[in-house]
Amino acid sequence: MQLSDFIRQFRNHPVLFVGTGMSLRYLENSYSWDDLLKKICFELKGNNEYYYDIKSNHCYDGKYKYDEIASDIEKEFNATLVSDRNGKFKEINDLFYSNMEKGISISRFKLYIAQIFGTLKYKSNPELIELKKTKKNLSSIITTNYDCMLEDIFGFKPLVGNDILLSNPYGALYKIHGSIDEPDKIIITHDDYEKFNQKYELIRAQLLSLFIHNPIIFIGYNIGDDNIKQILKTIFTYVDPSSDAAEKVRSQFLLVEYSK
After folding, report:
1. Which residues contact 171 (CB under 8 A, 6 or more apart)?
2. Contact at 8 Å (CB) between 160 and 182?
3. What is the rounded CA–CA span in Å between residue 120 and residue 110?
């Protein structure tokens, strides 16, 4: 089936579900999960060997658990900055202590992640002009990305954490893994994912409603992505896989994969 044929079947405006691949396509300063953690380790230690040592400790059946890797790196990153107050990461320490004076506790690790993605450095890509035109044909956007590229391109209102529950589904940007504008809500470590899975039942129910009533276009992911697997697992926990509702959801899914 051609993409245009699939889209002609839509009765409602689709929801765009956006992964890292989208930012990698249009931004100079975007990173895969692996490359982001490697970059942080390189900036911290001056080489990649430290990262590879940690990574090797979290390999299971040939797959890496990046949330566990991130947990180890966060501990080392925060401890290093505590012991080196005015060193290379003085700016991050300044921000950390400024927040603490206001009663706001945010991990130095997450403050640094927010800094990494803090500016939008676009590649020269004529697709961006066409991409902006699709705004009028989208219901809303869901993303696991931290950066602010999507709100910049589409002008949709970003929603993080509990704000998602109070939203109108049209013209909303659901940032389900947090945003650099609210670094305390960034989900990247094992503990972050555990808390997310425990706390956000209502948010998942909200997303499930979108999945039932709108076509969903996944873009910037691959079919084996753990985020996609977890989302599908969640949906079919609530919906009987053999039901008409489940078939309706499946028929409205479109995965756009990157190919060179």
Report:
1. 140, 156, 157
2. yes
3. 18
Cα–Cα distance, 165 to 204 (Å, whole number): 10
Please give the single-letter amino acid code of residue 57: N
242-253 residue pLDDT tens: 888 788 778 888
Is there a contact between 179 and 148 (Cβ–Cβ < 8 Å)? Answer: yes
DSSP alpha helices (H): ranges in the chain?
3-8, 20-26, 33-45, 49-56, 66-83, 90-101, 108-116, 127-133, 149-154, 190-199, 201-213, 226-238, 244-251
39: which residues sit within 8 A by CB, 6+ positions away?
31, 116
240 vs 223: CA distance, rounded Å:
22
85-144: pLDDT as tens digits: 999 999 999 999 999 999 999 999 999 999 999 999 999 999 999 999 999 989 999 999
Sign of CA dihedral 236, 240, 245, 246: positive
For 130, what's the count of Cα atoms within 13 Å in the CB-facing half-sphere?
4
pTM for this prediction: 0.91
